[in-house]
């Protein structure tokens, strides 16, 4: 296993959406956070030489590879960061773990629960550090929500309501990207964006007990892409089958007795990235929306009746976790900062052996809920999460 040194060398697979977000995080982290080791952007990997070479130069990586096996085998790499689509996660992670590397992997952890469990098992047996990129946990307002709940200020939790709404598929001519193929993505809106909502719910209020869901694929065939860029692309005149859900909604019971409602859709016209939660407790309520990510709305029953109402907290004070590392109060941060914070925690985890979550275990727990929902849809009935 790789020993902790003053420098931590990263090797990263993938250079598009998440590849860019993670590269930015590695570049910025040392400038804003005091770290026990320097992060060195050693090598980036992609299959297209011209593309990966350009990305390496633009994002600031020292070198590049076109075969992830070569990247994983390199002696000068301490940890592998996986930003390829879900079908590639397991193979890359297992080989990296076998080579003694620590692994940081994008969500969902794998194509399915059994692959996710195999990855967790291998990482635990090898004793390497492992992490999954549930980045939304690491925003100051979400951290504030967590500390309010943990302090008991919301009391007993009754309701958890989450949405993750996008509209990039409402146009039937949007091409058949990899996110719409079950064999590459695992599932559609469910594994892609419900996965984030499930993780936030576990982080904030605890484990799921049972679930029941339904889903829909509104457009069953789409143009085969000629090229893709981010979530969009250019389609050809030929069509292919969509093999994942466009939307999945489910009800949940939590182990603490709370009731949950979750809705994930890529057909929510007008909603661009509405990752939200609203939590009602016996003493108060909190609500959050990614599209206003610095703000947390809170309501406390103990307020005097004539003054009671929702208040909006701007989570940019030095007392708010991570906020003090950035700008003066009120100088808001954005989507990309969550990645800087999670990368900071993961690198510190390697360098200083500091505690870290979410790990592959959280990836597995999330995947258990995803699969329990799918099983409930197949059966048309409630399914206990422990059953999967
Ligand atoms: N944490 C988040 O909020 C978030 C957001 C978007 C995507 N994701 C996850 O990140 C992962 C990547 O998604 P994306 O949006 O960046 O996809 P993308 O299509 O933008 O990029 C995928 C990258 O992987 C590379 N790739 C694919 N197969 C490869 C292989 N065999 N070897 C080497 N490189 C390979 C591609 O060349 C490309 O650079 C997925 O697991 C996705 O679910 C997470």
3D architecture notes:
- The chain is α/β, with parallel strands linked by helices and 388 residues long.
- The chain folds into two domains: 129 residues, NAD(P)-binding Rossmann-like Domain (Rossmann fold, 3-Layer(aba) Sandwich); 235 residues, Dihydrodipicolinate Reductase, domain 2.
- The chain has ten helices and 17 strands.
- A nine-stranded mixed beta sheet has the order 16-15-14-13-7-12-11-8-17, with helices on one face.
- β5, α5 and β6 form a beta-alpha-beta unit.
- The longest helix is centred in the last third of the chain and has 20 residues.
- The radius of gyration is 21 Å and the shape is globular.
- It binds nicotinamide-adenine-dinucleotide (NAD).
- The site of nicotinamide-adenine-dinucleotide has 21 residues, from α1.
Report Rg: 21 Å
Mean pLDDT: 96
So, CATH architecture of the largest domain? 2-Layer Sandwich
How much helicity do the residues have? 25-40%
List the uncertain runs.
none
CATH topology name of the largest domain:
Dihydrodipicolinate Reductase, domain 2
Please give a quick description of this structure.
It contains ten helices and 17 strands. It is α/β, with parallel strands linked by helices. The strands form three sheets. Strands 16-15-14-13-7-12-11-8-17 form a nine-stranded mixed β-sheet, covered by helices on one side. Strands 3-2-1-4-5-6 form a six-stranded parallel β-sheet, sandwiched between helices.
């Amino acid at each position: 296993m790789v020993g902790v040194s003053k420098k931590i060398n990263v090797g990263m697979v993938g250079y598009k959406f998440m590849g860019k977000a993670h590269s930015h995080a590695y570049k910025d982290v040392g400038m804003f956070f005091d770290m026990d080791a320097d992060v060195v952007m050693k090598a980036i990997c992609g299959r297209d030489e011209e593309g990966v070479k350009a990305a390496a130069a633009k994002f600031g990586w020292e070198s590049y590879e076109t075969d992830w096996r070569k990247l994983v085998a390199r002696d000068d790499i301490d940890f592998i960061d996986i930003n390829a689509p879900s079908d590639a996660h397991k193979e890359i992670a297992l080989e990296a773990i076998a080579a003694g590397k620590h692994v940081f992997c994008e969500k969902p952890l794998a194509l399915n629960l059994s692959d996710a469990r195999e990855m967790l098992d291998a990482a635990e047996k090898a004793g390497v550090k492992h992490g999954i990129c549930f980045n939304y946990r690491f925003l100051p307002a979400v951290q504030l929500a967590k500390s309010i709940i943990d302090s008991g200020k919301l009391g007993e939790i009754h309701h958890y309501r989450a949405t993750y709404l996008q509209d990039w598929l409402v146009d039937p001519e949007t091409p058949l990207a990899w996110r719409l193929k079950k064999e590459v993505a695992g599932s559609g809106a469910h594994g892609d964006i419900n996965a984030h909502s499930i993780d936030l719910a576990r982080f904030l209020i605890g484990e799921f007990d049972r679930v029941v869901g339904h889903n829909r694929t509104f457009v069953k065939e789409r143009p085969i892409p000629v090229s893709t860029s981010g979530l969009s692309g250019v389609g050809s005149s030929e069509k292919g089958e969509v093999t994942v859900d466009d939307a999945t909604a489910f009800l949940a019971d939590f182990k603490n007795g709370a009731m949950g409602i979750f809705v994930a859709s890529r057909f929510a016209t007008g909603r661009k990235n509405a990752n939200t939660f609203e939590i009602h407790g016996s003493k108060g309520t909190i609500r959050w929306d990614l599209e206003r990510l610095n703000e947390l709305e809170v309501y406390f029953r103990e307020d005097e009746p004539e003054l009671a109402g929702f208040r909006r907290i701007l989570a940019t004070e030095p007392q708010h976790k991570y906020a003090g590392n950035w700008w003066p109060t009120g100088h808001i941060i954005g989507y990309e900062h969550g990645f800087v914070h999670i990368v900071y925690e993961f690198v510190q985890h390697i360098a200083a052996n500091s505690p870290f979550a979410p790990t592959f275990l959280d990836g597995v727990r999330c995947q258990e809920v995803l699969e329990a929902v799918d099983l409930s849809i197949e059966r048309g009935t409630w399914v206990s999460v422990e059953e999967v």
